[in-house]
């Protein structure tokens, strides 16, 4: 039986996959690259998400999930997950469990992922709902930092050189990672998807990441970003609240649940690309996938490998989210016309 999801489920899955990990660290990368110009540069690039999604929605039927294409995206999403897993293990080892080996932390993450993968598809599709109150609670904690905001930290702008702007433009692609999932998830949504719904999602996504960038920028001085790799966590740690000694630890658990669901969505996508005969062996596939993921992710849980994998991921994203979809769609439309077909 073919899986069907609603447009709301699609956008929730896409939002969680695109925000699950990178929103805690992309700020330092951008600010260190372009300084105060980071916020307007990201705003300018963030506005491109709507035409990006519109093009995907308009031509997704021309993106054929043939064997080689499915294999390439399956490998890419697996490596994205391995990079995320390494980052989760490294970050939790630094912030929450310094005496626990990173491999143990990652093994616990993989066990939860195995449960999600071996369950029905509807589990992954619907589990993101539980994150909505957590996300709202997290946003409330972040807004508490506005009391210490120095809004002049955002100005003056226009001081970055062309080379710095180019480097910052690459760093600004981090929050876009995962947008190509739309091409697969859209195939499960029956009927048409209005531009208005795409615009609403794009606005929510842009507002979320813009806040995640601007609030740390007005909270920390420009020079401090060179010393902090996760500004959101440092900001929460420095806040004094009556009900908890370390607010950042509460956020760590929210972020961990967020990352669980995000990785589950990537795993769901990879499993959907498997051939039908292999796809039926759900438990065995989940076990093999998780063992391989732990083996690769455990190699990426150091400070150096986290930075390296993050840099490589940016360029891989540009290929799989922009270049390859454009190429596949164009080829299918050209050959479709030559064969007398009617491309969508």
From TrEMBL:
What protein name does the entry list? Spore germination protein (Amino acid permease)
Q: Family membership, please give it.
A: Belongs to the amino acid-polyamine-organocation (APC) superfamily. Spore germination protein (SGP) (TC 2.A.3.9) family.
Q: Which GO terms describe its cellular component?
A: membrane
Q: Which domain of life is it from?
A: Bacteria
Where does the protein principally reside?
membrane
The record's keywords, sorted A to Z, are: Germination, Membrane, Transmembrane, Transmembrane helix, Transport
Which taxonomic lineage is given here? Bacteria, Bacillati, Bacillota, Bacilli, Bacillales
Per the UniProt entry, what species is this protein from, by scientific name?
Bhargavaea cecembensis DSE10
State where the protein is found.
Answer: Membrane
Any Pfam family hit: Spore_permease
GO terms (BP aspect): spore germination
Q: How does it sit in the membrane?
A: Multi-pass membrane protein
Query: Which InterPro entries does the protein's record reference?
Result: Spore_GerAB (IPR004761)
Q: Which residues cross the membrane?
A: 7-26, 38-57, 69-90, 96-115, 127-150, 170-189, 198-222, 250-274, 286-302, 314-335
């Amino acid at each position: 039986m073919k899986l069907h999801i609603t447009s709301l489920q699609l956008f929730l899955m896409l939002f969680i996959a695109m925000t699950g990990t990178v929103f805690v660290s992309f700020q330092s990368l951008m600010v260190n690259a372009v300084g105060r110009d980071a916020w307007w540069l990201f705003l300018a690039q963030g506005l491109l998400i709507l035409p990006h999604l519109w093009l995907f929605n308009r031509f997704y039927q021309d993106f054929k999930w043939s064997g080689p294409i499915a294999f390439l995206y399956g490998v890419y999403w697996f490596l994205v997950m391995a990079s995320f897993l390494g980052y989760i293990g490294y970050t939790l080892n630094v912030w929450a469990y310094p005496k626990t080996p990173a491999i143990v932390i990652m093994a616990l993450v993989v066990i939860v992922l195995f449960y999600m993968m071996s369950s029905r598809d509807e589990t992954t599709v619907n589990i993101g709902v539980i994150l909505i109150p957590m996300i709202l609670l997290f946003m409330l904690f972040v807004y508490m930092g506005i009391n210490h905001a120095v809004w002049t930290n955002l100005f003056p702008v226009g001081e970055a050189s062309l080379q710095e702007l180019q480097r910052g433009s690459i760093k600004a692609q981090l929050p876009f990672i995962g947008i190509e999932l739309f091409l697969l998830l859209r195939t499960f949504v029956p009927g048409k998807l209005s531009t208005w719904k795409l615009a609403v999602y794009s606005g929510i996504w842009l507002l979320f990441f813009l806040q995640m960038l601007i609030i740390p920028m007005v909270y920390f001085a420009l020079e401090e970003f060179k010393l902090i790799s996760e500004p959101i966590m440092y900001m929460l740690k420095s806040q004094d609240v009556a009900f908890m000694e370390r607010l950042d630890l509460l956020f760590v658990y929210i972020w961990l649940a967020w990352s669980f669901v995000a990785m589950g969505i990537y795993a769901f996508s990879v499993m959907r690309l498997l051939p039908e005969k292999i796809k039926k062996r759900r438990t065995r596939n989940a076990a093999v996938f998780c063992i391989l993921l732990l083996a690769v992710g455990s190699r990426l849980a150091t400070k150096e490998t986290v930075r390296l994998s993050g840099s490589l991921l940016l360029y891989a994203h540009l290929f799989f989210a922009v270049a390859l979809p454009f190429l596949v769609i164009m080829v299918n439309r050209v050959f479709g016309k030559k064969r007398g077909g009617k491309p969508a």
